Structures are given as C-alpha cells and as structure tokens.
Amino acid sequence: MKISFPFGLSATALFLALVACTLSLWAQTSEKPSSSATLSNSCIEVPQSMTFCGETISLARFDRRERMDRELLAFSYMHSTTLQMIKRANRYFPIVESILRENGVPDDFKYLMSIESNNNPLARSVAGAAGLWQFMPATGREFGLEVGNSVDERYHVEKSTRAACRYLKQAYARFGSWISVAASYNAGQGRISRELDRQYEEDALDLQLVEETARYVYRILAAKMLFADPTRFGFRLHASDLYPPIPYREIKVEETIEDLPRFAKSQGITYALLRTMNPWLRSRTLHVHGSKTYYLRIPDKERMYYNPRVTFPHDPKWVVE
C-alpha cells in the first residue's frame, strides 16, 4: 500500500525533521534540570549512628550503611504507604505511647508497631498475623488475648499493645538488649538465641539472617527518622491532613448480643461504624461466656464528623504551617 505524506514531504525528509525536533527538545530539557526532577532523585543521608531504646547503633560500616539506605529509600518513595502511616499515627500514637510508658517499655517500640502494620489496626498478613502488632493466633493467646470467631483481641488497640509489652519485656529478660528484642519480634526468640550462639555473635545486627529479618531493625530505625522529620523525606502534611482521635462513649456488655446490627441501630449508628470503632468484633453476634465483660465504643454523634479546625497534630514536627 502506498503512503502519501502531507505538504509533499518524502518519508526520509519527514523522518529527519522528527529527529531534529526530538534532539532540540532533549537539548532544552537537559541543559538545566528542573527542581522537581532534582527532588525526585534525591535521597536521605544515612547518619553515622543512631540510638534505639538508649542503645547506640553504628551505621558507618558499609553493610549497615547500605541496609539503612535501602530502608530510607523505601520510606521516601512508597508515598501512599508512608503518608497513611503518618496520618494514622496521629490517632494511635497517643494511646500506644501511654501504654508503653505504663509498662516500662521504651517509646521507640512504637516504630516497630508502625512497620508491622503501617499503624492500621485492621492489618492482616497473608500468614494470618493481625492487628497493630501483627500477632499470630497462637502468640496472641500465649500473651493473654482472646482469639476466636466472634472476638479477636489482636485487633483491639489497647489490649494488643499490652500483650506486645508482655512479649517485649519477656524477650528483654532473655536477651538484655532491646535491639535483640526487636529482631526477635520478627524471627522469634528461639531463632535469635540459636543464631547468636551458632555464629558466635553478641549483636543481633551482625547475624546472617533471612532477608526479612535482616532488614527489620533498619526499617524500625528508618521509621524513627521519618517521624522525627517527615519533610526531609519530602512529605509536607498539614494538621487537617491527619486522622484525629474519635470521641466515644463506652457501653458495658455482660450478656450475649445476638444481633449486633440491631444493637448498633438502637445506639443511633450503623453496624459498619460499630465495627470500625470496635475492630475486635469479628461476627454479627457478641457471645459472652461466664463472667466475661466487654466494652463497646459508640462514637460521639456530633464529634464523629470531620472538622479540620479541631484536628491537632500529636507531634508538631509532622506538619507544616
């Protein structure tokens, strides 16, 4: 089939014109990169050292520096995940910090929670770990949580945080190092103990471990840097962008509620809202056995609506004016 070109141009002439135009545009854009292009290729400088739970971690050695660099890059360029992590922290960090403090657990462990669940109390892994602290069912039960078909306290913010404190304190009694405790949260206490013995090491960061565990503590450190100054990572949030705490009242439940959707309607809210405020509810019925007592949270009808004028940052460093 014969192809004709406009204005009498031959195929060769048209091709040469296109090449010339492309080269001209390339020259114009390559002379002076825009500020946005510079930003898109930037990275956070890896510090020489960091502290975690009062323990100093040197990041000067090449392997440690490069592991840390990888995690800083991940937080910098996984934009939606990082932004949601910061937004949710405004709602959950005040609760978690208080419980950590009450239980004598270092405040830095809130960053472990952050990388476990992205601060999402509904998080669930493909392996079956659930909640802010990503407890597996058996581990949750071991540390005092009810895990069943109608109630799963791994999704309960306060109760799961107290269970995490029990685990962390038990692990510290075993290792005497919060860094090893953090590594064990991913790999298990037994694995970390065995590898420290087998590899003749005292520092969990010097162990040869599977990739997920080898990255784990560095991800916690990167999260700590992120929350110290999100703007360094390119995130410029306003107070109104953050998720505020939702005011609520509590109802004491000592008898089985057969129909939670009907119960929600009797309280003037939807069943969906009831489940959102009480994510540990896992079915339409709340079974109460023996002397067990539950507390259901009902959002305040007036203050559950978004109002940017009363949304305040838990940490002023998270936002810009």
From TrEMBL:
It holds the Pfam family SLT. This is Lytic transglycosylase domain-containing protein. Belongs to the transglycosylase Slt family. The keyword Signal applies. InterPro entries: Lysozyme-like_dom_sf, Transglyc_AS, Transglycosylase_SLT_dom_1. Keywords: Signal. It comes from Phocaeicola intestinalis. Residues 101-204 form the Transglycosylase SLT domain. The keyword Nucleotide-binding does not apply. Residues 1-27 form the signal peptide. Transmembrane segments: none annotated.
